[in-house]
């Protein structure tokens, strides 16, 4: 599962998952009981622009939590700072508290909590949070997109594709469809062994993912499968060229490495 999670993280790296306008500091999902707590939160928003100050700002935010224990936004922002400092276990605790206190008012809390669950392989819990997003925020594409992500691991690929289509429709209304969505379409169809459908998606995102071994492995596999199916020698040559670009073949996820070895025996 750990290797499969790497694809999830890889896709997030290009997506930079949506954080709407929350970090402009204009939104609070819980009302602070003390004015000083809000000042500390605002300072935390400003501090995001100064990485060298993250440690100090985190301490300030912890003080906001101590003096205002129902202020969910202070919990969330503290968790966010902890994640930025690679303190992922600690961030998970703060995210969980923030989401609980917000009482289903904050999609960004659920999204970040779900991603943190995924980091620790707690996929069922992540799926639950994404399903809550869809339930409480049906016009937000991130919940549908998150369900598609978790479907890679839970292996309900058709459910993933259905939710990804919904996410794509909503994304399209507000902006262009990003490469992470296209890549996910390719991944899910590849896992279903529907390589003919997957290949055009992998073609489209080449420039974004061409340095990632798991992407290259999936791309090569789709090329060789479609090439052999159509007796297309040029595509078969391209598949071999793509395969040779993979730097660490031992790091490829099992779902791809097994069929890949059959097509490219060494």
Automatic annotation (TrEMBL):
InterPro entries: TPR-like_helical_dom_sf (IPR011990), TPR_rpt (IPR019734). SMART domains: TPR. This is Uncharacterized protein. It comes from Chryseobacterium daecheongense.
């Amino acid at each position: 599962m750990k290797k499969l999670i790497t694809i999830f993280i890889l896709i997030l790296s290009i997506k930079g998952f949506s954080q709407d306008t929350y970090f402009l500091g204009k939104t609070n999902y819980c009302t602070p009981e003390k004015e000083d707590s809000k000042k500390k939160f605002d300072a935390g928003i400003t501090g995001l622009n100064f990485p060298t100050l993250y440690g100090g700002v985190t301490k300030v935010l912890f003080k906001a939590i101590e003096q205002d224990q129902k202020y969910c936004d202070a919990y969330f922002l503290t968790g966010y700072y902890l994640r930025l400092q690679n303190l992922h276990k600690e961030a998970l605790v703060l995210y969980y508290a923030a989401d609980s206190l917000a009482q289903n008012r904050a999609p960004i809390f659920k999204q970040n909590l779900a991603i943190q669950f995924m980091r620790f392989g707690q996929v069922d819990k992540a799926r639950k949070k994404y399903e809550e997003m869809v339930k409480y925020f049906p016009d937000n594409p991130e919940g549908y997109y998150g369900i598609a992500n978790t479907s890679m691991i839970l292996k309900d690929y058709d459910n993933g594709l259905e939710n990804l289509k919904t996410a794509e429709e909503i994304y399209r209304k507000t902006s262009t469809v990003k490469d992470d969505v296209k890549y996910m379409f390719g991944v899910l169809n590849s896992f279903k062994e529907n390589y003919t459908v997957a290949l055009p998606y992998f073609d489209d995102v080449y420039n974004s993912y061409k340095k990632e071994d798991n992407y290259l492995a999936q791309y090569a596999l789709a090329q060789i499968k479609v090439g052999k199916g159509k007796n297309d020698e040029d595509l078969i040559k391209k598949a071999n060229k793509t395969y040779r670009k993979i730097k660490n073949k031992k790091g490829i996820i099992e779902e791809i490495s097994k069929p890949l070895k059959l097509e490219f025996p060494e």
